[in-house]
Amino acid sequence: MRRTLVVAILFAFLLIVVWFALVNVQQVTLHLLFTRVDATVAQVIVATALITMLVTGVAAAIEILARRLERSRLQRRVADLERQLAETRRQLDEETRRRTTAERTAFGGGTDGGPEAG
Q1: What sections of 1-115 are H helices per DSSP?
Q2: Where along the chain do its domains lie?
Q3: CB 6, CB 59: distance < 8 Å
Q4: Residue of 29, 73, 76, 22 lying closest to 49 (CA atoms)
Q5: 25-34 and 2-22 helices, crossing angle to 10°
Q6: What is the DSSP letter of 114?
Q7: Of 91, 94, 98, which Cα lies nearest the Cα of 106?
Q8: Which of 23, 46, 48, 73 could make an SS bond with 27 (beta carbons 3.0 to 4.6 A apart)?
Q9: Which helix H or strand E contains 111, and what residues bound it?
Q10: Looking at the predicted structure, is the pLDDT value of residue 75 above 90?
């Protein structure tokens, strides 16, 4: 829901940006004046639209940077967990080898001719 609203707002402002790209600010002001809007009101409308576009752009940039920061933080956490997992596996393999060796020694197994020898 929130994402859809943000996309709709950004699309609306994209249309405004395209409109400003097609006609410069003076022509927009003249258009507003010809529609019987006071000059000060026309300037306020144009300024408000420009400020709104700027604020929206800054907000979008901040959100993009926040997502990148979060992704970077999560990637570091995953790498840390992978290192811990590798260390735990290494310790487990070591412990398994140690126990296997101890059991073979305790029961006289192995290749020294004991009961487990072929």
Answers
A1: 2-22, 25-34, 39-107
A2: 2-105
A3: no
A4: 29
A5: 90
A6: S
A7: 98
A8: 23
A9: none
A10: yes
Instruction: Decide: residue 20, CB within 10 A, 0-12 exposed, 13-18 middle, 19+ buried.
Output: middle
Q: Tell me the C-alpha distance between 96 and 86, whole Å.
A: 15
Cα 8 versus chain centre, distance: 21
Taking the model in full, what pTM does it have? 0.45
Residue type, 93: D
Three-state secondary-structure class, residue 88: helix
Q: Which two tokens stand for residue 47?
A: 């300024």
Angle at 57 between CA 16 and CA 4, to 5 degrees: 75
More confident call, 55 vs 118: 55
Query: How far, in Å, CA of 20 to CA of 46, rounded?
Result: 10
